Every structure is written in structure tokens, then in C-alpha cells.
């Protein structure tokens, strides 16, 4: 992050602390329809469009480190086979034999010189080509060239492996947009996978995710864990294209630990700049990634639907090589035995929220300016689904315009017109 960007964020923190109302021109946010959390029609639209058209984090190169290594991945409701090919490429296919639809693999992880279907022995290369079949004399005119495994879009960002079920989707870099540029300092191509665990939760996946995309709840839900070490009034939200968002929040003045979530000790990512080292710098990547990033760890949280009222939380920790030290794990206790206290505070309350949103009294969600990232996410979700495909009573109004989308930010002009940076700092002392 360049120095002028750091200075801008610091000034915006003071602007946020000094304001007594939302920024001039920021729209009033209409209620989110309550049915977006409970209506089976909207849940089906999410499956058909959001999960089918988005880039989804599926694996890390450490899970398929050598040619022939594979992993089975089914978090998005489709059977996906990720394979490290002899060429060095990482490929993804539907785990479906082109003969009778049997699975090619049934193990979660493994390594094979060829991919052989257990049902009838059809054999495929790591690039999905059909190489051999049993009893070929019994097939007449079988064209091997069109009987390979069905590929799935698969691209990497550093050591991360993403998949997308939509052949017409933009590239992963285009999808990430400015976020990819900002992530260069975190060296995703050098960090190893230290921990990955899953936990089933009894609430809609968006309820669980949204608890990690705003700080409005911090004083109430995290009074002893996060609130004492995060200045929620100086939090700066940034909205990016494609539904992504970022929050940057400093520690309260006088607090020595500069981050709301305490990072593991160990080797550092030397290229991480001042903001990543002294603030909670957290990203939401559409549709289901939330993660603080620092010089110590890259720890995404991923939220996957397991039904309309259940979801799966995946906790990852990536870090520079830890040598002989214990593997770092930001989010769990005793190598996945349970979630850390901060996540328990969010996830346990999510069960109570689910009960409440299913009540006759729940009609909609009035969001504050601090919760704008949630509204921004929902606007993009409707555009991805197709607004006309959504029942009228379940749509969100498209009220946050491009003028609030990075790199645009009307707050900067308002700061320049009202206060100098020095005035801003004086105003909140």
C-alpha cells in the first residue's frame, strides 16, 4: 500500500470518528426483505446463480503438492475432483465418469498415476483425457476424444485454488479486481496452509457470514474480546466491484496490540505494510470469504450453505513457514477441537438469530451506514441472480451507486471541503 493510500485511510478514520451522521449523499438503505434468509425460493436462486457463477476457494497447493495428487471437494453441492497434473497444471473436473456416471474417486485425498473409475475401470489422464476402457471390442465407434472428464474452470491466486462452474465467468483476476492488487503485499504465493477445519452451524449461511462483515455488533457480542482492542468508531469501509468489501479499523489509542484478532507468533510476511501491521484489515470477497490479513497470517473464513437454515463454517490459517514450531491456527483450539472464543461468540448467537428470523414477527432488516457492506453484497447478489428472476417482495433496491464504489469515494471530497487532516485529528481528541 502506497504512503498516500495509508495517509488517506488514516484521515478517513478520523473523519469517521468525527461524523455525527452518515456522509452527505450516502443513501438511506431500504430494509433487506426477511425472506432472503428463510424463503426456499431465494435459497434456490442462490444455488442456481450465486454458487454456480462465482469464483469459490476450493483448495491450497499444499493439499495437492505433487503430480498425481488429487482431492475431492463438494462444499458447493457439486462433486469436484481437483488434480495436480504431470505438466504442473492444477485441473478441476466433475467427479463423474463419462461412462455410467460413477465417481472417479471416493477418497477425500490421494495420489494416483492415472484416474481409474472403480465401477468399470475406465481410465483417464490427469488432464481428463480418456485413455483406456475395459473390453473396447464391445463398443462400436466410441470416440475417446469427446468422452473425457467434464472440466470445471480452475484458476490460481498464488497458492490458492479457485473453481467456477460457469464457462462464461470472468477470469479470477478480473473477478477480484482491485482486491488482487491490494493483496500483492501479502504474498499468497509463498504462504503455506497451516490449518483447515470445518464446523456445522444451525443458521442460514448469510447470518453467520454477516457477523464478520460489520463492527456494529462488536460492543454487544464481543465486549471483553474484540471491543477493548478495536476502535469501531474509526472503522473505514470500502466497497469494491463484484460485491467485495474491505474494513480497516485501528486499535483504540493506548492499546499495544494493534489488531482486534490476535495473530499467531512466528515468521512474518516482510512485505506487509503499515496498515496490515497496525490495524485490523479485513476483506469480504463475494460470495463467502471473510478474512483479516496481517504480516503473521492469512486466515480466511468461508461460509457454505448446508440447507436454508444450516451452514458449514470453514476456518483456514495460512502463514509463512513455521519451521519446527507448532503450526499456527488462528481460529480453533487444540487443532480443530472447537472454535476460538471470538468465533464462538458469533456462531452461538447465530443459532438464536435463526430462530428469530423464522418467527412471524420478522419482516426485514433495517441496515445502518456501518452495515453498508452487507447491503452492497445483497445488491450484487441480485444483479448476479438477475433482478427480474427474483420475486418482487424479495428484491433489494439498487440504491448504492457507482459513486460510492472504489476508487470513487465522496467522503474524500467532503473531508477536503470541511477539514484539513490536522483539523480532523483535533476534532476527535
Topology:
Elements: H1 3-18, E1 32-33, H2 40-53, E2 56-60, E3 69-73, E4 80-84, E5 90-94, E6 109-111, E7 115-116, E8 123-124, E9 130-132, E10 151-157, E11 160-164, H3 172-176, H4 178-182, E12 192-201, H5 205-210, H6 218-221, E13 236-239, E14 245-250, H7 274-278, E15 279-285, E16 289-292, E17 301-305, E18 311-319, E19 332-333, E20 338-339, H8 341-357, E21 364-365, H9 372-385, H10 410-418, H11 421-427
Antiparallel strand pairs: 1-21, 2-11, 3-4, 3-6, 4-5, 5-10, 7-8, 8-9, 10-11, 12-18, 13-14, 14-15, 15-16, 16-17, 17-18, 19-20
Question: Residue-averaged pLDDT, rounded?
Answer: 93
Globular, elongated, flat, extended or rod-shaped: what is the shape? globular
Task: Give the spatial strand order of the biggest sheet.
Answer: 2-11-10-5-4-3-6
Strand content: 15-25%
Residue stretches low in confidence (pLDDT < 50, at least 5 long) are none
Please outline the major beta sheet: 7 strands, antiparallel
Radius of gyration based on Cα positions: 23 Å
Per DSSP E runs of 2 or more residues, the count of β-strands stands at: 21
Helix content: 10-25%
Structural class, from secondary structure content?
alpha+beta
Number of helices: 11
Q: How far apart are the first and last residues' alpha carbons, in Å? A: 27 Å
Amino acid at each position: 500500500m502506497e504512503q498516500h493510500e495509508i495517509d488517506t485511510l488514516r484521515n478517513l478514520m478520523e473523519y469517521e470518528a468525527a461524523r455525527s451522521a452518515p456522509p452527505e449523499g450516502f443513501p438511506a438503505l431500504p430494509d433487506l426483505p426477511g425472506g432472503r434468509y428463510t424463503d426456499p425460493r431465494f435459497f434456490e436462486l442462490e444455488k442456481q446463480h450465486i454458487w454456480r457463477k462465482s469464483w469459490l476457494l476450493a483448495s491450497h497447493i499444499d493439499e495437492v503438492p505433487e503430480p498425481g495428487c488429487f482431492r475431492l471437494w463438494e462444499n458447493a453441492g457439486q462433486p469436484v475432483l481437483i488434480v495436480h497434473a504431470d505438466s504442473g497444471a492444477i485441473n478441476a473436473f466433475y467427479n463423474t465418469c463419462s461412462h455410467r456416471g460413477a465417481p472417479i474417486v471416493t477418497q477425500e485425498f490421494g495420489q494416483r498415476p492415472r484416474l481409474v473409475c472403480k465401477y468399470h475401470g475406465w481410465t483417464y489422464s490427469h488432464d481428463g483425457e480418456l485413455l483406456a476402457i475395459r473390453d473396447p471390442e464391445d463398443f462400436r465407434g466410441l470416440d475417446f476424444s469427446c468422452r473425457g472428464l467434464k472440466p470445471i474452470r480452475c484458476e490460481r491466486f498464488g497458492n490458492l485454488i479457485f473453481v467456477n462452474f460457469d464457462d462464461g465467468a470472468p477470469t479470477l483476476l478480473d473477478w477480484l479486481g482491485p482486491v488482487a492488487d491490494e493483496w500483492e503485499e501479502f504474498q499468497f504465493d509463498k504462504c503455506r496452509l497451516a490449518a483447515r477445519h470445518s464446523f456445522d452451524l444451525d443458521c442460514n449461511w448469510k447470518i453467520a457470514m454477516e457477523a464478520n462483515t460489520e463492527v456494529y455488533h462488536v460492543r454487544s457480542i464481543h465486549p471483553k474480546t474484540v471491543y477493548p482492542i478495536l476502535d469501531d468508531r474509526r472503522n473505514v469501509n470500502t466497497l469494491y466491484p463484484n460485491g467485495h468489501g474491505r474494513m480497516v479499523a485501528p486499535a483504540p489509542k493506548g492499546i499495544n496490540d494493534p489488531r482486534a484478532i490476535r495473530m499467531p507468533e512466528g515468521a512474518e510476511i516482510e512485505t506487509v505494510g503499515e496498515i496490515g501491521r497496525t490495524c485490523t484489515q479485513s476483506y469480504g470477497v463475494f460470495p463467502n470469504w471473510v478474512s483479516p490479513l496481517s504480516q503473521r497470517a492469512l486466515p480466511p473464513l468461508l461460509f457454505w450453505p448446508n440447507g436454508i437454515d444450516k451452514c458449514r463454517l470453514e476456518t483456514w490459517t495460512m502463514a509463512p513457514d513455521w519451521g519446527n514450531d507448532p503450526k499456527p491456527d488462528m481460529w480453533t483450539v487444540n487443532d480443530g477441537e472447537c472454535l476460538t472464543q471470538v468465533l464462538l461468540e458469533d456462531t452461538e448467537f447465530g443459532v438464536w438469530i435463526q430462530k428469530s428470523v423464522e418467527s412471524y414477527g420478522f419482516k426485514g432488516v433495517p441496515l445502518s451506514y456501518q452495515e453498508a457492506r452487507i447491503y452492497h453484497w445483497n445488491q450484487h447478489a441480485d444483479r448476479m441472480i438477475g433482478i427480474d428472476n427474483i420475486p418482487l417482495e424479495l428484491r433489494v433496491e439498487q440504491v448504492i451507486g457507482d459513486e460510492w464504489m472504489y476508487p470513487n469515494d465522496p467522503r474524500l471530497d467532503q473531508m477536503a471541503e470541511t477539514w484539513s487532516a490536522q483539523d480532523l485529528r483535533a476534532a476527535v481528541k
